[in-house]
Amino acid sequence: MAVKLFNLLALTSLAIAACSFGAAPANALNTRHHDIGRRHVAHDGIAKKRSQTQRCKQRPSSSAAPAPSSTKAPAPTSSAIKVVASSSAAPPPPPSSSAAPAPSPSSAPSSGGGKVGVAWANGDSPDLANFKTDKTSLLYTWSAYKPSNADQLGFSFMPMLWGQSQIDQFEQMVTPGYGSIILGFNEPDQSGQSNLDPETAASLWMQHIEPKRSMGYTLGAPAVSSADAGRTWYQNFLNACNGQCTIDHCVIHWYGTDPQQFISYVSGWQSQFNCPDILITEYADENFVNMNDQASASDISTFYSTVNKWMDETDYVKAYFAFGIMTNMQGVNQLDSLMGSDGQPTSLGWQYINDSW
Questions:
Q1: Is residue 283 a contact partner of residue 307, using CB atoms and an 8 Å limit?
Q2: Which InterPro entries match (predicted)?
Q3: What are the tens digits of pLDDT across the range 25-48?
Q4: CA distance linking residue 42 with residue 121, whole number of Å
Q5: Please, are residues 122 and 36 in contact by the beta-carbon 8 Å criterion?
Q6: Quick check: 222 and 189 in contact, CB under 8 A?
Q7: Which of 189, 213, 280 lies closest to 72, judged by CA?
Q8: Is 181 strand, coil or helix?
Q9: What SS3 state is found at 262?
Q10: What are the pLDDT tens digits along the chain (357 aa)?
Q11: Nearest to 58 by CA among 260, 196, 238, 235
């Protein structure tokens, strides 16, 4: 009897041990991203790309932008609009208590050059210097946190109010002279991202983003996904603003594999919403509809060559930010990566930051 009891206990222990080595949950794919978050990046901003299958139904140096003055400046008037709704359908660590120095002013990006942006998810890393050229000027981090070497390198920083839980950090960090353009909420139409209804977003905008314009900032609209619901959410946001939200820049995300569809999507956004100008703050050659049918390196090079040349030549496109200056691509085609494991640009990355196609 004692032997049988011993065998039963042994089998039970073995079963418990086996269960502990079961399949890892999907969130384990984002483990490294938590490390990125500890390095001062709004971790949720670039998480869960692979799960956002609806987002693609549309397929379905020296030229830094000017920073606002450290003193209170009058609100810009030349290209900004107070949004009037159309009738047509349409988390980082606590910030430092000391304010960062204002970046040195220099010329703004011009048509055909200087539009290449850096979307940076790597915190305070010296590798940022590897991505500064005379073509790269604007920088953002999916948060209000600015890398400590950004000003010295000549980047013009774009702080983001990613979502509702980042308000305190945003208010503490975003002061006159800290950056140039404020970016609104990150994919508020998506439950896995900032997940805000249009009415709440409009209210938060008026409380926390609109007042920053009197500090000299220009304001970038909430960046919805390229899912079908994105346009509807944005139109409803404009309705909720009731003409009170100042939109200096429309902001777009797009993922797909057809460069002509990208061009059509951006052109359609401009036609529908009559944007002062457009920032494309995330885009990549990525097939979220069929994850097993991804582009080759050659196809990706052709995609970027086509769309980047078009954006350089299109006056209403102010700047663009390819998704991929990271080694862990968060579910996006690894061949889109613009950064190698050594922190240097990949071959594609070199072409991107030098605008050389």
A1: yes
A2: ASL1 (IPR053183), Asl1_glyco_hydro_catalytic (IPR024655), GH (IPR017853)
A3: 222 223 223 333 333 444 445 554
A4: 8
A5: yes
A6: no
A7: 213
A8: strand
A9: helix
A10: 444 444 444 444 433 333 333 333 222 223 223 333 333 444 445 554 544 433 333 222 333 333 333 333 333 333 455 654 433 333 333 333 333 333 333 333 333 348 999 999 999 999 999 999 999 999 999 999 999 999 999 999 999 999 999 999 999 999 999 999 999 999 999 999 999 999 999 999 999 999 999 999 999 999 999 998 999 999 999 999 999 999 999 999 999 999 999 999 999 999 999 999 999 999 999 998 888 889 899 999 999 999 999 999 999 999 999 999 999 999 999 999 999 999 999 999 999 999 999
A11: 260
Backbone angles phi, psi at 39, to 5 degrees: -100, 40
Sign, Cα dihedral of 226, 229, 232, 233: negative
Token digits of residue 238 = 């404009």
The model scores a pTM over 0.85? no
DSSP-based three-state secondary structure for 350: helix
CA distance linking residue 323 with residue 332, whole number of Å: 9
Residue 142 CB neighbour total at 10 angstroms: 25
Q: What is the DSSP letter of 127?
A: G
The angle, 0 to 180 degrees and rounded to 10, between the axes of the packed helices 347-354 and 297-313 is 10
Neighbours of 88 (CB within 10 A): 8
Counts for the chain of helices (H) and strands (E), in that order: 9, 10
Tokens found for residue 111? 């048509």
Which domains are present in the chain? Answer: 27-354 (3.20.20)
Burial of 212 (0-12, 13-18, 19+ CB in 10 A): buried
Q: How many CA atoms lie within 13 A of 63 on its CB side?
A: 17
- Residue in the block written with tokens 């979307």: 119
Rg (the chain; Cα; Å): 22
186, 166 contact by CB (below 8 A): no
